Every structure is written in C-alpha cells, then in structure tokens.
Amino acid sequence: MRSDRPGRRPPAGAGDARAGGPRAGHRSARQAAAGRQRQHRRAAGAPHASVRAQPHRRGQGRGRGGRADGRAPRRQERDGSRPVTRSLKGRILTPAGLVDGTLRIGSNGRIEAVEGTPVAPESARDTAGPLLLPGFIDLHVHGAAGRDIMEGGDAALQVARKHAEHGTTALLATTMTAPMEDLRASLAPVGALARKGEPGAARVLGMHLEGPYISSEKLGAQPPYARPVSLDELKELDALAPIRLLTIAPEVPGNLDAIPRLVAAGFRVQIGHTAGTYEDGVQALQRGARGFTHLFNAMTPLHHRMPGMVGAALAHAQYAEIIPDLLHVHPGAIRAAMRSIPCLYCVTDSTAATGMPDGEYRLGRQPVTKCLGGVRLADGTLAGSTLTMDRALRNLVDVIGLALDDAARRLSTHAADFLELPDRGRLAAGAWADVVVLDRDLRVQEVLIEGGSTDVAHAR
Ligand SMILES: [Zn+2]
Question: Could you tell me which residues belong to the region Disordered (predicted)?
Fold first, then answer.
C-alpha cells in the first residue's frame, strides 16, 4: 500500500478501500496482487513518504479575506508560520452522509472531529450556509495556467496552484508518451514537490504515466513514441518521482505478461489508449490491472457482439476514470457507465490551456489549439480538456443529474480509495483537512489543503 503518511492514524471508518478489477471470479488473483504491492512498499520502506505542506502564506500576494466561519484569519494563519486550530460550520458531507454542524481542524492539519445533525440527501442544497465537501482528487492532470507537466521546472507547482483554486486538493501529475529524456526531465522536479508540498498548491501525490507503453493505433493526442513496457525504465523513473499510476495497452506484445511483474514491483496498472479486445481487457484485469484510463476515449468501443475494451470495463471494473467535460463523453454514456462501474471517478485530463483564454498551447511536444472550450490537435482530435474539478461537480449535478453526495464521492473519495489513501477524500476524524467550501450554486468559496487555506479569488 502506498499510503503517503505511513505510520499515521487512519480516519475512523475510512479503511474500506476496495480493490479494483473484475467483480467476480478474479478476486483472489487481485487480492494477491494487492498484497504483493503492499509487501513491496513495506519492503521498500515507503520511500515516497511525503511531508505535509505548510499552510498558505498570506504575505505572498495570494491572500484573501473571509473564512467559512466568517471570521478574520488568526495571527498564525496570516503569518503562514504553522497551521492553526480552526472550526468550519456548514453542511458537511461525511462518510455517513450530510450533516449540519461543525468540522474541527487540529494544528497538525488533520480533522479532529465532525459533529452535526443529519440532513436528508435530497435537500443537500437547501441551505443558506456553506457546503463543505472533501477536497477534489484528480488523478489525471497534464497542465493548467499555460504550463504543461512535460515542461519540467516549476510547471507542476504552477499547475497544482491553478487547480487548487478550483477545489483540487490532491492530484497526480500526468506525463505524455515521450522519449526517456523528456520523461526524466519532467519527473525530476515533481519528485521534490511530492516530498515536501507547497503552500497554496494541490498536494502532488506523484505521477500518472500515461504511456509510453500504449498502442500506436490508439494514440489519441499522444505523440508517436509508444513502445512495449520496460520495467527497467519504470524503476528509473520511479526513483525520480513516485509513479502512482501507469496506463498501458495490454494487447501490445509483452505488455499482458508484464502486468504481474509490474504489480509485484508496486506499480498500479490501468488500461488505456488501447486497441485491445474484450478478452484482452479481461485477461489484463485477471493479471492485476485495476482501472481504465478515460473510459470510452482512446479504446475499442462496445458493440453487442464485440464488446471491446469498453465492454470489459462495463462488465468487470470496480474503478475507472471518466472525463465529465461533456465534450469527451455524452452525458448518457456517463450515466450508463455510472450504473455499471460502482466507483467510476472523475478526472479532468486538463491541459496547459486550462484557466487560459482561447489560443495556441502545447501538450507535451505537440501544438494544440483551445477554442470553444475544447483543446484539439490540428486534425481536430480532442487533446485533453480545459476542465476543472469544480466545473466537473456542476456538470455532474446540474447537467447529468447526480445527487450531490454521489457526485462528491466520484470527485474525491473513489479516487482516494483507488490509490489506497484512507486519510484523504473524506471528511472524517483523523483524515487530512482537505476541504472545498462551496456556495449553494456550487461555486468555490474557500479551499483548505491539509488545514491551510488557499486563495481562490482567481477562480471566481
Ligand atoms: Zn491524458
């Protein structure tokens, strides 16, 4: 298990991380794989243990007035010297459901207690007070604010700051298919960020390697550097920055057989950018793959006599990503997937164009154009999104019609469970105080990352 705070107390009732993969028939293989992964992490002495971020420093020109409790920031918080004990009042989504009450945060940045009276889910937004949801967790982030993770340097920090404004409290920096020298250059600075965190930035939990071990037939917007899995390359990259998630195409020769070795080495394998069949998908799940990368996009579609990779996911997956920007997947297909995949969770697949005006940007080595809310290659292929997680929440609730509690879990809790992080993605005693405070129109009012308040003024 790759908990980012080994040895710390998990939140009460939060240890229900469920394994992915086929629901029936493959459980023992999956559990064995998960056991190997945990074993590996223990043997490795949890080398990627991270250090808690400091609270946002208000002297850096990013401060904002107002707190969810309506009072001025306390002295320590203004100075940014250390987190402070704080109480937030409002309608709070707990693992047991909504309550009207108080969430107390300790000086260690963790939730001390959540108290209140239960509220019926159907009246979730029937309140004048703030809504407090678990901070969003986005496992597929290429960029924002004009910056791309593949740039290296301080790109990941700037990307994490922009997404924090929109309620994202933790994310995976996501690479493109690329030559090794480009991957090395992009991972090295993320390793440092994952170890120490930064004020006002979403916690970078590690990397999602989207390729290069994918299908050259299903590149989507990925450049033509696809190749078979190399465990040596992965170990070299993992030493630079923790690889939490790895997208591969199982039908590429050698990849299916490599999955058990990848899992045994501690890598969480996800199926994506694949021209594989339904059978390839089922076999990959049986061998230890656990999720699907942006379900429906860049994979073989479902036909009733040839169910393809989408069919494998709908029939067997416990977890999968989906991009709810309403451009990548039709709302009806999102609803269908939610009925089939219990822990379907949302990602943005966001690019440098996120939070920026229409114009020309880069996605890895490729030029892309942002226009009418979409990001595309010159040939019109969708190339990631400009989605932010707060907009994803509004899309799920206001357009697709999900209940607020269900939508919130698909933006946070399920992703935390998928990464086996019991102390994130839920507002419960012992968990990190990663909180997004929203008004009844689901606009972000305040974001707390490990108890520290974050400026959201630019997001409004
Ligand atoms: Zn992507």
Answer: 1-92
